[in-house]
Design brief:
The chain is α+β, with helices and mostly antiparallel strands. 16% of the residues lie in helices and 28% in strands.
């Protein structure tokens, strides 16, 4: 029998689960060729049992045979830890057919094991093969390494589990990950066991529909998302996900169940359905259908984002995108190129009209598909739109369309040039029917008549594209909602309103918002690496990106509504490794509720388990963390159930479209980077130069309307809510107070009360039904009703506590100027700073209410006492307060 072990564990049903773990380096027999001076030069401490089996032979396939015993004849989940890089790995179980393992998908824990950390093919990862039948007694399995590159392959270990196996590197079930002792005495490991999804007080699945779409297609009514059949309003608390390489249907279903448990009712599926030549990829389409069906079963809706220009680098000779060389993305080309638009529409038709292989249903008939977006983060008004970088065939299309637009307006190109006072630019070729475009900087600084026409042409081109795309989707039968895009501009005051106006062609308005921590260094835009530098920034304090600069009143949570349409924030994140990242969930839940935001989607679910590094590179946005997903239960309830009420409308701007086209802009403050040193207006007279206090977004609601005639604008008196001298903002309904000097958010509503931020500085906080004190300088303590009753009478309350997170072994050194340099990014498991404090419930029957501590999956651990005094436990995030 091959070396390994068999382990019996008690499953949630009471039956005993069997886990069979077999080491690859101990075969019954093998025919492999080792490569001692390179391929086998690996970090053996990263391997189970300290070794593996490998093959490197230019002439023959490697083969390894294993014999092992199973205690029962049953179905087992089969996992393999092997080399995933360009490998062909097959297995043959008990003399059955030869099956290839899909090593390109569903990778878990991809790790570089090269001895010198070189980036080559010496990698290892777990793969879920699927469920297979084993017989009681002896079983036999044969693996074959048959890759095109020297038949290379390696096998570390493999596992059979009668239950659901969750891999954690080389750890066997029941083993705990070592926590490095240095600087970790004040931290506890956040490393939940695999979730059995039994009854739990933090399980919010029941707040979702039985199946997404039970209430009909999502529609819009009175500025809200509603169920089309019932008219009932719905708010979406969502994530970007699931991980793109998660193709196993059972795993998709498990992820959907996990998301529903944590309060998620929307996923934004962000990815293309075309190959690198732009042709429809049927495999990706079927995967999208699988995702929708898995999410639907857990009451989770899906929003599709299928095109981002950075996903496509047209090859030479691409007929519908001429002029590209395979290195440049087609920035803004989709707005102008009709051939590209036809190809783009084929992607939509393939996604929406293809029947699912499992269900036979088409997504166009599926009410669980709530909405789609035309394109992601592309604009004619952002710096990426530069005529100098556009290939000549594409520039000809744009300049020809501009010339036609001018001829329609002025009657001739000569008349247009005359109206501009003779201003010409490179690219003007009236005889060829082309007129050039001036750079954006000149457009929004000089604002000449030519610039005004250029801006109007670009804005109308965007608006028309969005409107035509929405019409096309309706024509093919799509019944959900359509939004335009979600990007920023080169100038918030002048170009920003034009961008937002173009979005009104859709059913709702989308945008993105991040609090970055100024990461600089190798690949800083998308990964976290040793040697990078960054700055810790508190969103609650409006910390600037440069230490010592004035506070920066530009926040991802500020959400102005446009034209009475619903709003969506389809990408939001406080980026890692910022220690203040844990501020995000309650911050968005509280102020999203206050401002009447209709959907908030957190970026991004890049892993399916609680992993700090689910892929090969550590990413800045990982959601499966204690600070983020760990705080979703209370945050999702606050936001989705409206436990914090909407604020009064304090700003209502009515902008004349023609004024925007003439580059007069709009009042600043609601959508731009305004710092504390800039004087804000206190006048009731609103002009395009008015600087509205951006802190108004933390007091109540703001809105902007576009029309041909314009109209009066209003800004209500703000002194009752905004106290700049003491750096505080109080919401109009009195339920939120932000101390942006110390970074303290206080929540005091009937069904949700708590405090977030520098709790230690706040001292003892007296709320309506709670008294809170804590020594945590970064903590988040909130109580929410679970039965829809005020906290003063509720019989079931969730008390949720969090602090800050870091990876195991994370280490930094000072880098000057308030910045830090990463010495080690660390690894598994997540750590959370130990929790501390006292929560006292003030209600008369507090001594009759029991307090039960819950584990990290939300299951009961221990009854602690009564609710009149709750002493927070160092490693407990959740408590059930019940009567």
């Amino acid at each position: 029998m091959a070396g390994g072990f068999a382990l019996s564990l008690l499953a949630s049903s009471g039956s005993r689960a069997e886990v069979i773990w077999i080491e690859g380096e101990n075969p019954f027999r093998a025919s492999v060729t080792r490569h001692p001076w390179w391929y086998d030069k690996v970090q053996r401490d990263q391997l189970s049992g300290g070794d593996y089996i490998s093959n490197w032979d230019d002439k023959k396939t490697g083969e390894a045979e294993y014999h092992f015993n199973a205690k029962q004849s049953a179905s087992y989940e089969f996992w393999v830890r092997a080399n995933p890089v360009d490998t062909i790995l097959t297995y043959q179980l008990n003399g059955g057919g030869i099956t290839q393992i899909a090593t390109a998908d569903n990778r878990v824990g991809l790790t570089n094991i090269a001895e010198n950390n070189a980036l080559d093919i010496r990698m290892i990862a777990w793969f879920k093969v699927g469920r297979v039948p084993l017989k009681a007694g002896e079983n036999t399995i044969v693996f074959r390494f048959d890759s095109k590159n020297n038949h290379h392959g390696s096998l570390d270990c493999f596992v059979f589990d009668t239950d659901a196996f969750e891999p954690h590197g080389i750890l066997k079930p029941g083993e705990e990950r070592a926590v490095l002792p240095e600087n970790n005495s004040d931290w506890f490991p956040f490393d939940p066991a695999p979730d059995a999804f039994t009854s739990s007080p933090i399980d919010l699945r029941s707040f979702n529909e039985r199946s997404a779409g039970d209430g009909g297609f999502i529609a819009v009514k009175n500025g809200e998302f509603v169920h089309g059949s019932t008219g009932a309003p719905i708010r979406f608390w969502g994530v970007n996900g699931p991980p793109a390489d998660l193709t196993d249907v059972d795993e998709l279903r498990r992820v959907a169940r996990m998301l529903a448990k944590h309060g998620v009712n929307l996923v934004r599926i962000h990815g293309g359905y075309f190959d690198d030549s732009g042709n429809v990829d049927p495999k990706r389409v079927q995967h999208a259908i699988d995702v929708v069906e898995a999410m639907k079963a857990q009451g989770i809706y899906c929003h599709f984002s299928i095109y981002f220009y950075l996903w496509l680098h047209p090859k030479p000779g691409t007929p519908w995108l001429a002029g590209y060389d395979g290195t440049k993305p087609p920035t803004a080309a989709l707005f102008f190129n009709p051939e590209f638009q036809r190809e783009y529409r084929e992607w939509w038709k393939a996604l929406l009209l293809t029947p699912g292989q499992r269900s036979g249903r088409r997504l166009i008939d599926e009410p669980a598909v709530s909405s789609v977006e035309c394109l992601n983060e592309d604009s004619c008004f952002f710096w990426t739109f530069d005529p100098k970088s556009i290939p000549e065939p594409q520039l000809e299309i744009i300049e020809s369309r501009f010339a036609a637009w001018l001829e329609k307006k002025y009657g001739s190109l000569d008349a247009a040039t005359s109206a501009w006072g003779g201003l010409k630019v490179a690219g003007d070729a009236a005889d060829a029917g082309r007129m050039g475009l001036r750079p954006l900087w000149q457009i929004f600084h000089e604002k000449t008549p030519r610039d005004q026409d250029t801006a109007a042409f670009l804005a109308q081109a965007q608006y028309n594209f969005y409107r035509q795309t929405a019409d096309f989707l309706r024509d093919i039968g799509f019944k959900g909602l359509v939004t335009a895009s979600n990007w920023t501009t080169a100038d918030a005051q002048t170009l920003g309103p034009l961008e937002r106006y173009s979005y009104t062609a859709g059913d709702f308005i989308d945008r993105h918002g991040y609090l970055d921590c100024g990461v600089e260094g190798d690949s800083a835009g998308w990964s976290i690496r040793d040697g990078q530098t960054f700055i810790d920034r508190s969103g609650l304090r409006f910390d600037p990106i440069v230490s010592g600069h004035p506070k920066l009143f530009s926040s991802a949570v500020m959400d102005t509504h446009y034209d009475g349409k619903p709003s969506m924030l389809s990408e939001v994140a406080f980026n890692r490794p910022n220690r203040f990242r844990s501020e995000e969930p309650l911050y968005f839940a509280a102020y999203g509720s206050l401002q009447g935001s209709n959907a908030i989607e957190h970026f991004a679910l890049d892993g399916k388990t609680w992993s700090a590094k689910p892929g090969f590179f550590m990413q800045p946005w990982t959601l499966m963390s204690p600070a983020m997903m760990g705080q979703f239960p209370a945050a999702a309830l606050i936001y989705r159930e409206g436990l914090i009420g909407e604020g009064a409308e304090l700003v209502d701007l009515n902008l004349k479209v023609n004024d925007l086209m003439e580059l007069r802009g709009g009042p600043r403050g609601l959508d731009g980077e305004i710092d504390e040193s800039m004087p804000v207006s206190t006048s009731a007279n609103i002009t395009a130069d008015t600087l509205i206090d951006p802190l108004v977004c933390f007091a109540g609601r703001t809105s902007i309307h576009f029309s041909q005639d314009g109209g009066p604008s209003k800004v209500m008196p703000l002194s009752a809510y905004i106290d700049r001298a003491h750096r505080t903002v109080t919401s109009t309904n009195g339920q939120l107070k932000l101390d942006y000097d110390e970074g303290i958010l206080t929540i005091n509503a009937a069904q949700a009360q708590g405090i977030s931020g520098n709790i230690a500085k706040a001292g003892t906080v007296e709320l309506t039904d709670l008294s809170i004190s804590s020594p945590m300088d970064l903590g988040h303590i909130v109580a929410v009703s679970l039965d829809g009753q005020p906290l003063g009478t509720s019989r079931k309350i969730l008390l949720q506590v969090a602090s800050q997170e870091k990876t195991n072994g994370f280490k930094t050194d000072p880098a000057g100027g308030g910045r830090l340099q990463i010495v080690s990014i660390g690894g598994e498991p997540w750590l959370m700073k130990k929790l501390a404090g006292t929560v006292k419930f003030k209600r008369r029957d507090a001594e009759e209410m029991t307090v039960t501590s819950l584990d990290l999956n939300g299951y009961p651990k221990k009854q602690l006492g009564r609710a009149n005094t709750v002493q927070l436990q160092a490693d407990t995030m959740y408590y059930l307060i019940a009567r």
